[in-house]
């Protein structure tokens, strides 16, 4: 199929189906994934390199935009102390569930590690949309959920970098190799911090005075791509660099003016990110899902329960009551970001097969459908309980 036609069909289907799911109360991500599934069934009989390349750019811009727009360091500092315990409990429980499940079904340790990391993250984008829709973003559990989800994504990015490095070694690392992994991460982070504090502010002061059109927007995109490449130079994955680059640019006022943010969002969420999610759906092997029903069901159940129970326990520890803790646990269940990047990286490197890949994509779909329903039910139950208590003093 002609390259231009491929891009047209992908974007058209992704946007039309995304709009349909948005109008029915679900995330547009579902529509984009289903667009890819439809493409795989009816339109395309092979894996075009163009589609794969655009999907890789989609993953880069998804993570860059998350760091650039959604991670606010000031808010992280103010809520971080209370959010750290729920974040740890949900990550530990979800990670353990994924790793143990992989071993039970006789997958290799590396496969189980990738599955465990995919179990661990919460989708910031889906969570924010749900909280805004239910007018719950500024509530105590809502603000705690958002901060915890940001920590989740940051932890997921670094866990991804570690398991990718382990995958390249093809065995569990020795102590010296673990030190090497962390040294690379530390040196990369230090280099990015120096760029963010010393170089980029001066660069954008100069760019702001340039006469060419869209100079600030252009250099934001240039730095996004440079950050992705720079991470690969340290043998880390490109999405890690993109995420860190986004966070660093978010601290530079000139680089984050509203007009530029809007254009970056348009490029990311309007073009590249839908292609990434469509590619996820395109590469799902539906026949594998039919033949691995027990494993698939357990992946869905354990991934959701790991987050629900871990979030509930952690939020109870930091002082939330049972109803708010339940709301918190349900709120951190949706997946649709880091975990899809994780399994895509794992599959592209030949580490995980169709069985794990397709099961986790199904888990993402179920989490996006189920989480808003359960959250609405839990919020309504809490409000009814509060009304009953106030009417019966």
Helix-strand layout with pairing:
Elements: H1 3-23, H2 28-43, H3 49-70, H4 73-104, H5 109-120, H6 124-133, H7 140-169, H8 175-207, H9 215-233, H10 238-249, H11 258-282, H12 286-291, H13 293-317, H14 322-331, H15 338-348, H16 354-391
Helix pairs in contact: 1-2, 1-11, 2-11, 3-10, 3-11, 4-5, 4-7, 4-13, 5-7, 5-15, 6-7, 7-14, 7-15, 8-9, 8-10, 9-10, 9-11, 13-14, 13-16, 14-16, 15-16
InterPro entries: Cation/H_exchanger_TM, Na+/solute_symporter_sf
Main location: membrane
GO molecular function: antiporter activity
In percent, how helical is the residue content? over 70%
- The ordered H/E elements are HHHHHHHHHHHHHHHH
Number of spatially distinct domains = 1
Roughly what fraction of the amino acids lie in strands?
Answer: under 5%
Class per helix and strand makeup: mainly alpha
Tell me the CATH architecture: Up-down Bundle
**Strand tally:** 0
Biggest pleated sheet: none
| Overall body shape | globular
